[in-house]
Amino acid sequence: MCTDSKGGHDLRHHGDAEVRDDGSALVDLAVNVRAGTPPAWLREVVAGSLAGLAAYPDGRAARAAVAARHGLPVERVLLTAGAAEAFVLLARALEVRRPVIVHPQFTEPEAALRDAGHTVDRGLLRAADGFRLDPAAVPEDADLVVIGNPTNPTSVLHPAAAVARLARPGRTLVVDEAFMDAVPGEREALAGRTDVPGLVVLRSLTKTWGLAGLRVGYVLAAPETIAALERAQPLWPVSTPALAAAEACMAPRALAEAAHAAHRIAADRSHLVAGLKEFGPHGLRVMEPAEGPFVLLRVPHAAAVRQHLRGLGFAVRRGDTFPGLDEEWLRLAVRDRPTVNSFLQALDRALALAHR
Known about the structure:
Layout: E1 2-4, E2 27-29, H1 40-48, H2 60-70, E3 77-80, H3 82-93, E4 99-103, H4 108-115, E5 121-124, E6 144-148, H5 160-164, E7 172-176, E8 199-204, H6 206-209, E9 217-221, H7 223-232, H8 240-249, H9 252-277, E10 285-286, E11 294-298, H10 302-311, E12 314-318, E13 329-333, H11 337-354
Parallel strand pairs: 2-12, 4-5, 4-6, 6-7, 7-8
Antiparallel strand pairs: 1-5, 3-9, 8-9, 10-11, 11-13, 12-13
């Protein structure tokens, strides 16, 4: 692992850019939101909340539901307009001298820190090491460390013990667990832990529940950290429909549905990875083990392959906007088997076209 403070990557590029405008008709393997969501019962909850739009949002019930779901007091919970807002709050509310982002990972934490005037160092994990974390490689004087688990885009699930070893007195350790509910059993989760000093865990309801357009997530941290972040928030930051959705997604029925979905995603991911490995003779390499609802692959002429896939009706996520990756990387969202089978046929054609 090496440390790099240089820019040069488009930190504001995200998978949704692949399916806007002329990409709206493509089969979407670029965005990591679970297909077929939100479910009908959740849409009904959101619709039912609209009768209360004349009143200002009251987040107490949703906050209590999140706290109960993780076995925490409400003072350790902050509801946010998506996890992205949480990164902005952290960048603006905390006194930070040397922030370090462990890359490759979701780029919004670094973008938020830079926008807030911070100089950001990068800890770059290496493909040769499987993008696995080496806690000893993070500089000792880093007072803010941000890591994703499982990490977007590498799909690496770091051991909870290894992530916890990044904690130090005087350091804020931010763990982005936006995709943890897509991991069967949420193994390696730190959400709910109170024994790790400086721990801040971020969760999102966007991915599993298909609520990207509603904007709802939450922060779990020590009460003093939550209070500092809350002071940096505008009044009523989370809408009434988003609060209703958050409360509903903490219910036992919803948690059981999410757990079932996680196992289905794991099975579909295994099918996708097995199919991708058939293209090894073309130089395609899949990063394994993949544990998130997406996979990262390296393939020669990836930019050309991506463009040919678009012509064949499929959108995939370019990888070169992630620090630590270059133009040979692509990220694929896990989809159901029929979609994957169709995609693999298109990939076969795209690889042949790219190698002409």
